[in-house]
Write a structure and sequence with these properties.
Layout (H helix, E strand, L loop, with lengths): L5 E5 L3 H13 L3 E5 L2 H11 L3 E5 L7 H11 L4 E6 L4 H9 L2 E6 L4 H39 L8 H14 L6 E4 L6 H11 L7 E5 L5 H9 E2 L11 E2 L1 H4 L4 E5 L6 H13 L1 E2 L8 E2 L3 E6 L3 H6 L5 H7 L3 E3 L10 H15 L6 E2 L1 H8 L6 H15 L4 E2 L38 H15 L4 H8 L3 H10 L4
Parallel strand pairs: 1-2, 1-3, 3-4, 4-5, 6-13, 6-14, 7-10, 10-13, 15-16
Antiparallel strand pairs: 8-9, 11-12
Helix pairs in contact: 2-3, 5-6, 5-7, 6-7, 13-15, 16-17, 17-18
């Protein structure tokens, strides 16, 4: 067994108590025993056993009453009832009061053992659920306090993800790779790991690798000394020094230039950095969390991402499910965002019409949680009553341009119009057209077009191949 359970055996037949006790001790359990209810209750108060095996007929108190008292004293103690005089009504009453199993005398000790094994599995699952619930409470509180939002959802996928976050947060510096489509909340998960860890009172520093020109990468990464190059008018700390003691979040890691990937790998292995223009190195204590919405293993196999860095980051992976795969979370998310935006806009309580909610449940949300949030925000603005109606849910106008085309590209308009005549607002089509616009203005010079879009040359090259624009 994985855990040495403590088992209390209660029966007024001492011979049976001894027989069961000896059998369970041979199975490596810790065994406690009592032949009277008062003694059994004292054991429960002082030792809180994992499992109690109770006879129905006991002197001075029925086993059913003892079951109730044990459950009040220690609800997590699971109870198996035994009886030589039981009937169906007694079994039903025992289960109603919280018993997990029931055996009629005479029984085989092997059957009792099987029941204990089943119960242990139940206890383990229950403990994990309690841990997840506790982690969700702590996580929600910390995220609200620090960044004003929280992870929302009660689906099995969300609970499993939070369980994974909690486990890796307890390790001192294990690197984490977060995978998921755009809009699933990768940075929020990274924040969550940080605030669940012992690093929570230190810096969380976020970097979008797509938004940094390749020529500035090394300076941003490691920092520089004054005079190290033209324009270096003062000393500058790099990302690792800024996040020292805390967490460094590298979003869109796939867009990091190959040369810098090698340097990142070295830092992860050696835990030290050197500023540009300095001969000295400095030890740093940073947990690196990387994120990507692309298949890094595929890129590595195509020699577009360092395979050794992929394996270094791939130690602990959290894959965030898209919203279409956890639709049971949509009502909870809708309620959360409705309350948030009605408060923010000073509107009265707005409820979601049943048909409007069904419309959302039937939608696939290509933009994931971010898209749902934007839909609710816009709908609350449009809503004039206290009920949000289906006609106020403009699903076809809710897509966003990807975060990695961040900022307003130099020389390009801050906004661009989109035709919705045939397919509606198409995220990939808009990205494709924006790239074509940049290439046109740059005279088909990839380096200049990448600079206009404020992404790396490699990122532009990947996107051009994705859209067959070569």
């Amino acid at each position: 067994m994985d855990k040495k359970l403590s088992i209390l055996v209660v029966d007024d037949e001492q011979r049976l108590v001894d027989e069961i006790g000896e059998f369970l001790k041979n199975k490596k359990f810790k065994v406690l025993s009592a032949n009277q209810p008062a003694k059994a209750l004292e054991i429960v108060r002082t030792t809180m056993p994992d499992i109690a095996i109770l006879d129905i007929r006991l002197p001075g108190m029925s086993g059913l009453d003892l079951l109730s008292k044990i459950k009040r004293l220690h609800p997590l103690t699971e109870v198996i009832m035994i009886s030589g005089h039981g009937d169906m009504n007694t079994v039903i009453e025992a289960m109603r009061k919280g018993a997990i199993d029931y055996f009629a005398k005479p029984f085989r000790l092997a059957d009792i053992y099987k029941a204990i094994v089943r119960t242990q599995r139940f206890i383990q699952i229950n403990n994990e659920l309690h841990a997840v619930k506790s982690s969700m409470g702590v996580l929600s509180k910390k995220l609200l306090e620090n960044i004003g939002v929280r992870l929302v959802g009660n689906s099995p996928a969300m609970k499993e993800m939070i369980n994974m976050m909690n486990k890796v947060a307890q390790t001192p510096n294990t690197s984490v790779l977060i995978l998921g489509e755009s809009g699933t909340g990768k940075e929020l998960v990274a924040h969550g790991i940080h605030y669940l860890s012992d690093r929570s009172d230190k810096t969380f520093y976020s970097v979008n690798c797509s938004a940094i020109p390749e020529t500035l990468f090394e300076s941003e990464f490691f920092g520089h000394k004054k005079g190290a190059f033209t324009g270096a008018d003062s000393d500058k700390d790099g990302w690792f020094e800024i996040a020292d003691g805390g967490t460094l979040f590298l979003d869109e890691i796939s867009d990091m230039p190959m040369a810098q990937q090698a340097k990142l790998l070295r830092v992860l292995e050696e835990r030290k950095v050197s500023k540009i223009g300095s001969r000295k190195s400095k030890m740093v204590d940073v947990r690196v969390i990387a994120a990507s919405n692309t298949n890094l293993e595929k890129l590595a196999n195509e020699n577009k991402f360092r395979l050794d860095l992929f394996h270094r980051l791939n130690i602990f992976v959290i894959d965030i499910p898209p919203l279409r795969e956890r639709k049971e979370d949509i009502p909870t998310l809708v309620d959360y965002y409705l309350k948030m935006y009605t408060r923010q806009f000073g509107k009265p309580n707005i409820k979601m019409d049943k048909n409007a909610l069904e419309k959302l449940m039937d939608y696939d949300f290509p933009g994931n949680v971010r898209e749902l949030r934007n839909i609710i925000e816009r709908s609350v603005i449009l809503c004039e009553g206290d009920k949000l109606l289906p006609r106020q849910l403009s699903l076809s106008h809710s897509h966003e341009t990807e975060n990695n085309l961040s900022g307003s590209p130099s020389g390009l308009p801050d906004t661009f119009s989109v035709s919705t005549e045939n397919t509606g607002l198409d995220l990939e089509e808009n990205e494709r057209r924006l790239i074509l616009k940049a290439l046109e203005q740059a005279g088909n010079n990839k380096s200049k077009a990448a600079a206009l879009l404020n992404i790396t040359w490699q990122a532009l090259d990947r996107r051009m191949k994705k859209f067959n624009l070569e």
